[in-house]
Amino acid sequence: MGQLRAEKVQEFIKQEISKMILTELKDPRIGFVTVTRVEATGDLRSAKVYVSLMGTDDQKAETWAGLTKSLGYMRAEIGKRIRMRFAPELSLHLDETLEYSARIQELILKIKQEEGNQ
């Protein structure tokens, strides 16, 4: 299995899970979610799905619970939609890089404002 195939599978899973979250998952707990990346193992037996969640801490917790509950459905759907012998085992991981970037931006702006006031 080449690197190109793994990259294609990762991108396919990312797109399909994003689509499922937007249009297919009916769990009312699921709020605003962005699938940021997917990392599959070399044998494509498992894939880590990284998501960024928006909202309050309570909303994020509810969204996480809804997504976790939907993992079996998402794996089954990926299995139907992809031409592979096995559907990869999916695991959810929180990607906090967007939040981190936003916080850094906030701090930079604050520093610039403080410098401007002196």
How would you summarize this macromolecular structure in one to three sentences?
The chain has 118 residues and is of the alpha+beta class. The chain is built from three helices and three strands. The model has no long low-confidence stretch (mean pLDDT 90).
Tell me what you see in this structure.
This protein has helices spanning 3-23, 57-81, 97-116; strands at 33-40, 46-53, 89-94. The chain is an alpha+beta fold. It has one domain: GMP Synthetase, Chain A, domain 3 (2-Layer Sandwich). It has a three-stranded mixed sheet with strand order 1-2-3, with helices on both faces. Keywords: Cytoplasm, Ribosome biogenesis. It is found in: Cytoplasm. It comes from Sporomusa malonica. One of its GO terms (biological process) is maturation of SSU-rRNA.
